[in-house]
Design a protein that fits this description.
- The chain has 16 helices and 16 strands.
- By secondary structure, it is of the alpha/beta class.
- Strands 4-12-11-10-9-5-6 form a seven-stranded mixed beta sheet, sandwiched between helices.
- Helix 8 links the parallel strand 5 and strand 6.
- The longest helix is centred in the C-terminal third of the chain and has 23 residues.
- It is globular, with a radius of gyration of 25 Å.
- This is PLP-dependent aminotransferase family protein.
- Keywords: Aminotransferase, DNA-binding, Pyridoxal phosphate, Transcription, Transcription regulation, Transferase.
Length: 465
C-alpha cells in the first residue's frame, strides 16, 4: 500500500491514506483506501471501523464527508452497519448469478464518476426548477422546447448549430426506428442494410412485414456500386446505416465512403436512416452522413448507449416537416412520449454539463476495457478502439453458434454472428460487449475464460452446429 501509506504516528487507522486535494473528492479517497485495505488483507471481514464522528475529528473533516465515504463503501459492498454496535467490514457477497454477461451492449460504469451523486443532484435540480405536476402528466410527443434545445446542444459536436424545431425527442432509438419504419415504408417494402446489422432493426422489420436485404461491404462499409445496383433493382423504401463503431463489427466508415453513399442516395431518391449511437464515443469520427447530405438522411442519436441504459432518450433529426408529422403520428401509435421525468433529467444533465462529464468517464473506461480485451484476446481481437464491443473472428474449428453455446455452459454469455445477419452469407464471429459487467476484475476473468475456451477444440457435445 505504497500510495496509502499508514500514518499511525498521527493516531489514525493504518489503512487510511494521506488525503490530498489533487486526488479527487476526499470521501472517494477514504472509500478507495477502504477498498484497497480489504483487497490486500489489511482489513478483514468483521473488523470494526472507527465511529464516523471520531474519524471526522481525527481527519479534521466535516462529518458529512466521512458519512459519504462510508455510504460509498457500503455501495461497494465493503461495509455493513450493525446498529448501535457500529460499522464493520462486510463478508464477501455470494454471487447468486454466475453468468458473466458479455452479450449486452451497454456503457460501462465510469471510474471516478460518482453516479449516485450525479443522479441525486440532477433530480434535485429538476424537482426544484420544474412544475412537479407536469412531470407526472401527459405531454405532446416529440419533446418540449427545452428538451429539443438540449438535443440540439448534444448534437452540436456533430452538426454545429441546429434548428431545434427539426429535432424530435423519443423514448429510445428502438422506438425511433420502429416509428420510422411505420411512417416511411409499407408492408412488403424493402429496407437495405449491411450484411451484419443491429438486431433491433431486424426485429422491427420482421414484426411490421418489411424485407431486409443485404448490400455487400468491404473494410470501409457498404459498397457504393452495390448500393446503386440494389436501389435500381429493388426500389427500396429506406437504407439503414450505422456508420460509426458499427454494431456488431466495430468498424467506422471513412468520410469519403459516406459521401459516396450519400451521393447515390440522392441520385436514387432513397432515404437513409443513420443510426449513430456511438459517434460521441469515437475519437475523431468523420462527419455524420446527415451533415453531408442533410436533405437525404434522417439521424438518430440515443443517450442510453453512450451514457446509461436507463436514460431512454433519443434525438431524431428530421428536416422535412411532413416527414416529422408522419413520424410523430407513427410514434404515437405505440409510444406517446418520453417519460417526462426522464426527459427532464436528460435535459438538466446536458445543460449543466453532467452529461459531458459522464460521457468522458464512459469513454475513458471503454478505452481501458478495449485495451484489456486486446491484451487477453491477442491474435483474435477484432478491435473497436473506442467502442463498447469487440468483433471476434473465430478459428475454423469453432462455429459461432457452437461457441456461444459452449461459452454459456461455462457461465459466459456472448452474441453469435447469426443474431446480426441480414442475408444468407455465414460469418464465423461473435460480438463481445465490454460494458455490462460492472467490475473490471470479473470482466477480466470472463475474457480470460473465453480466451481459454477459444484456444481448445470443441468438446464432442458441441460439435454439432
Amino acid at each position: 500500500m505504497s500510495q496509502l501509506r499508514a500514518i499511525q504516528d498521527e493516531g489514525l487507522p493504518s489503512w487510511l491514506p494521506r488525503l490530498a486535494g489533487n486526488k479527487g473528492p476526499r470521501f472517494l479517497q477514504i472509500a478507495d483506501a477502504l477498498q484497497a485495505a480489504v483487497a490486500d488483507g489489511s482489513l478483514k471481514p468483521g473488523d470494526r471501523l472507527p465511529p464516523q464522528r471520531q474519524l471526522a475529528a481525527q481527519l479534521d473533516l466535516d462529518l458529512t464527508t466521512v458519512t459519504r465515504a462510508y455510504d460509498e463503501a457500503r455501495r461497494r459492498n465493503l461495509l455493513e452497519g450493525r446498529g448501535a454496535r457500529g460499522t464493520y467490514v462486510a463478508a464477501p457477497k455470494v454471487e447468486l448469478s454466475p453468468v458473466l454477461d458479455l452479450s449486452m451492449n451497454t456503457p460501462p460504469p465510469p471510474d471516478g464518476v460518482d453516479f449516485d451523486d450525479l443522479l441525486q443532484q440532477g433530480l434535485s435540480q429538476v424537482l426544484m426548477r420544474a412544475d412537479n405536476a407536469s412531470l407526472m402528466t401527459y405531454h405532446l410527443g416529440g419533446g418540449s422546447e427545452a428538451d429539443r434545445k438540449a438535443g440540439a446542444s448534444w448534437l452540436a459536436p456533430m452538426f454545429g448549430q441546429l434548428d431545434a424545431g427539426q429535432l424530435l425527442v423519443c423514448p429510445g432509438a428502438q422506438a425511433a426506428l420502429a416509428a420510422l419504419i411505420l411512417a416511411l415504408t409499407a408492408p412488403g417494402d424493402v429496407i437495405l442494410a449491411e450484411p451484419l446489422a443491429y438486431p433491433g432493426l431486424l426485429a422491427a422489420a420482421r414484426q411490421f412485414g418489411r424485407r431486409i436485404l443485404a448490400v455487400e461491404t468491404d473494410q470501409h462499409g457498404m459498397l457504393p456500386d452495390m448500393l446503386e445496383q440494389a436501389c435500381r433493382r429493388h426500389q427500396p423504401a429506406l437504407v439503414y446505416l450505422n456508420p460509426t463503431l458499427q454494431n456488431p463489427t466495430a468498424l467506422t466508415m471513412p468520410e469519403r465512403r459516406r459521401k459516396e453513399l450519400a451521393a447515390i442516395a440522392r441520385r436514387c431518391k432513397v432515404r437513409i436512416v443513420e443510426d449513430d449511437p456511438y459517434w460521441r464515443l469515437a475519437d475523431a469520427a468523420p462527419p455524420p452522413l446527415a451533415a453531408l447530405a442533410p436533405e437525404q438522411v434522417i439521424y438518430i442519436s440515443t443517450l442510453s448507449k453512450c451514457l446509461t441504459p436507463g436514460l431512454r432518450v433519443a434525438f431524431v433529426l428530421i428536416r422535412d416537416p411532413q416527414e416529422r408529422e408522419r413520424f410523430l403520428a407513427a410514434l404515437r401509435s405505440f409510444a406517446l412520449m418520453v417519460a417526462p421525468l426522464t426527459a427532464a433529467l436528460a435535459t438538466q444533465w446536458i445543460l449543466d454539463g453532467s452529461a459531458g462529464r459522464l460521457l468522458e468517464g464512459v469513454r475513458a473506461e471503454a478505452r481501458l476495457r478495449q485495451r484489456m480485451a486486446g491484451d487477453i484476446l491477442a491474435g483474435r481481437y477484432g478491435g473497436g478502439g473506442d467502442g463498447l464491443h469487440v468483433w471476434l473472428s473465430l478459428p475454423a474449428y469453432w462455429h459461432s453458434a457452437q461457441l456461444a453455446r459452449a461459452a454459456e455452459s461455462e457461465g459466459i454469455a456472448v452474441t453469435p454472428a447469426e443474431a446480426f445477419a441480414t442475408g444468407d452469407r455465414s460469418v464465423n464471429a461473435i460480438r463481445i460487449s465490454l460494458g455490462s459487467i460492472k467490475d473490471r476484475g470479473r470482466l477480466q476473468a470472463g475474457l480470460q475464460r473465453l480466451s481459454h475456451l477459444l484456444a481448445r477444440r470443441p468438446e464432442p457435445a458441441f460439435t454439432g452446429c
